[in-house]
Design brief:
Number of strands: 4
Oligomer: single chain
Strand content: 5-15%
Order of helices and strands: HHHHHHEEHHEE
Helix content: 55-70%
Radius of gyration: 23 Å
Shape: elongated
Length: about 170
């Protein structure tokens, strides 16, 4: 069995310096990381891939950076893969905690901010969130299909960073 692990380690270049890795070794590392990443994605929530919040985006950035190091040999291969799984499970645990605790969810995911109410700009919230009137108008044209602010009942900057619009009732 020791011979197998020794051969496996040699095949992956586990004891080699990054600059000494061959194309075959980097390719095999990439294949293993690809398969492991697929497993991580299946373990994580579907939302994490859509980067709905900064909480989700942080997971993607950190795991991608770590796994790249496993491929290029600048970090220990198996401990780095294991750490990726730990971070995905931590993300899932924190997400579940946020589901059961609204207060915790606000802490890690943020809260929405009202940008327009009854056709009036909420400039304080716009300033706090760095949303200019031009930014709002652009999203209003693209999402709400209007450029008339008086037709907007509510506009919110959602936790995801998207702006949602609810139009006034036509009968009103």
């Amino acid at each position: 069995m020791t011979g197998f692990w020794s051969s496996f380690g040699e095949l992956l270049g586990l004891s080699a310096e990054p600059k000494d890795l061959t194309l075959l070794q980097v390719s095999l590392r990439g294949i293993i990381v690809f398969v492991a990443t697929l497993a991580m994605v299946r373990l994580s929530s579907k939302r994490s891939l859509s980067e709905k919040t900064a909480f989700d985006a942080v997971l993607i950035v950190i795991v991608a950076s770590m796994l790249a190091r496993a491929i290029n040999g600048s970090a220990a291969f198996f401990p780095t893969l294991g750490s990726g799984f730990v971070l995905v499970l931590l993300h899932r645990l924190l997400g579940a905690t946020a589901y059961y605790s609204h207060r915790f969810g606000i802490m890690i995911k943020g809260r929405p901010a009202m940008l327009v109410q009854n056709g009036r700009l909420e400039r304080k919230n716009m300033r706090r969130n760095h949303i200019s009137e031009y930014d709002l108008e652009e999203d209003m044209r693209l999402s709400a299909k209007t450029d008339d602010l008086s037709k907007i009942k509510v506009a919110r900057l959602e936790r995801s960073g998207d702006i949602s619009f609810i139009k006034m009732d036509d009968a009103a």
